[in-house]
């Protein structure tokens, strides 16, 4: 599978919770971290998803929000905790790479101002948040 998306997480479908229109797909990643993707029921059928299916979860870097408050409550279904492994500073936006459990890396694009406000430096513990509706599922 080729894609331009940097945030590609391989995992296995742990559970499918079907609703009237959409399904919540729980995915177990390396390192025993779990994320949720919300997709249409028709997409579940089209992909042939079932418990145990291998999937890739793709998350756009600009959809990943960061916080240095690891206990922060936010109305986002997905929360991955890790350490800042690199920072690339730009004129307006900065690229923050977070290493999470299992060796997965999540890239977040935030404003330079936000990075300064969070006082982010390499080695900081951070929490990355993203909505289930921001996750795109793909098969190899």
UniProtKB/TrEMBL annotation:
Q: Cross-referenced Pfam families, in alphabetical order?
A: TOBE
Q: Where is the Mop domain?
A: 2-68, 73-139
Q: Keyword Protease, does the record have it?
A: no
Keywords annotated in UniProt: Molybdenum
Coiled-coil stretches noted in the UniProt entry, renumbered to this chain: none
**UniProt keyword Metal-binding present:** no
Q: Name one GO biological process term.
A: molybdate ion transport
Which NCBIfam families does this UniProt record tie to the protein?
Mop
Report what the protein is called.
Mop domain-containing protein
| UniProt source species | Leptospira perolatii
């Amino acid at each position: 599978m080729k894609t331009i998306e940097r945030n590609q997480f391989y995992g296995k479908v742990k559970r499918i919770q079907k609703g009237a229109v959409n399904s919540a797909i729980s995915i177990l990643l390396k390192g025993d971290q779990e994320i949720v993707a919300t997709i249409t029921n028709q997409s579940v059928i089209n992909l042939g998803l079932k418990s145990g299916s291998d999937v890739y979860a793709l998350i756009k870097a600009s959809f990943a929000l960061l916080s240095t408050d690891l206990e922060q409550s936010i109305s986002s279904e997905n929360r991955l905790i890790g350490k800042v492994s690199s920072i690339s500073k730009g004129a307006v936006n900065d690229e923050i790479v977070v290493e999470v459990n299992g060796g997965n890396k999540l890239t977040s694009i935030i404003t330079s101002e936000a990075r300064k406000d969070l006082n982010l430096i390499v080695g900081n513990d951070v929490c990355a948040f993203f909505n289930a509706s921001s996750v795109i599922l793909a098969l190899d």
